[in-house]
Amino acid sequence: MKFEATTRSVQGSSASRRLRRAGRVPAIVYGGKGEAQSIELDHNEIFHALRKEPFHTSVLDMMLDGKKQNVLLRAVQWHAYKPQVLHVDFQRVNANEALTTRIPFHFINGDESPAVKQQGATISHVLNDIEITCLPKDLPQFIEVDLGNLQANEVVHLSDVKAPAGVEFVGVGEESPVLATATVIAETAEDDAAEADGAAEAEKSDKPAEDDAK
């Protein structure tokens, strides 16, 4: 994905406020062989880009003063209650150096699994993303987790998911973390009691009335 940026010569909080009033966003790009550099972005362009998941997980083409730099989105500061981007951090990417970032899981086929369709289970997603390391060319936009064969009361571990080629999961201990669970919610004691009371009332209504003349 590509976006435009220009060098920012004036810094400081008052300069940043003036930028924001003019529809611009102060930002910074750092890392690689170059020094940290202050830049500015068009607010509308970056606002709409940030609403797209790939912008958070892809190597981006930043056109800085017309020259391309490959960068990775690292941090975004939002206004407390307005739909306004206040500041953005980017990191330069070297094609020959491994990078570390977080990638979301995409869970698929859960509603078609035996756990849901046949056994009435509820699927819960325990982890929504994972830290990975890889070369920029191998960076996936997401990790797909297929739940199509999940049975009731089963769990899916990270060890059940194959990492894409060139990708390594980071920070995983000896015990593989749980990604998703399929749980059948048992009826509570109150539900059982209410069902029993309802059956008793139905049984009474089915009996013929006693003859008071006896």
Could you walk me through the main structural features you see in this protein, from its secondary elements to its overall organization?
The protein is of the alpha+beta class and 214 residues long. It has two domains: 2-93, Ribosomal Protein L25, Chain P (Beta Barrel); 100-184, Ribosomal protein L25, C-terminal domain (RNA Polymerase Alpha Subunit, Chain A, domain 2, Beta Complex). The protein is built from five helices and 13 strands. The chain has helices at residues 13-21, 43-50, 53-57, 114-117, 189-206, and strands at residues 2-7, 24-30, 37-42, 60-64, 67-78, 85-92, 99-108, 122-125, 129-134, 143-146, 155-157, 168-169, 178-183. The strands form three sheets. It has a six-stranded mixed beta barrel with strand order 1-3-2-6-5-4. A hairpin with a 6-residue loop joins β2 (24-30) and β3. The mean pLDDT is 89. Residues 189-200 have a biased composition (Acidic residues). Residues 201-214 have a biased composition (Basic and acidic residues). Residues 189-214 are annotated as: Disordered. Residues 99-179 form the Large ribosomal subunit protein bL25 beta domain. This is Large ribosomal subunit protein bL25.
Keywords for this entry:
Ribosomal_uL5_bac-type, 6-stranded mixed β-barrel, 214 residues, RNA Polymerase Alpha Subunit, Chain A, domain 2, 5S rRNA binding, single chain, 21% helix, Ribosomal Protein L25, Chain P, 13 strands, 2 domains, Rbsml_bL25/Gln-tRNA_synth_N
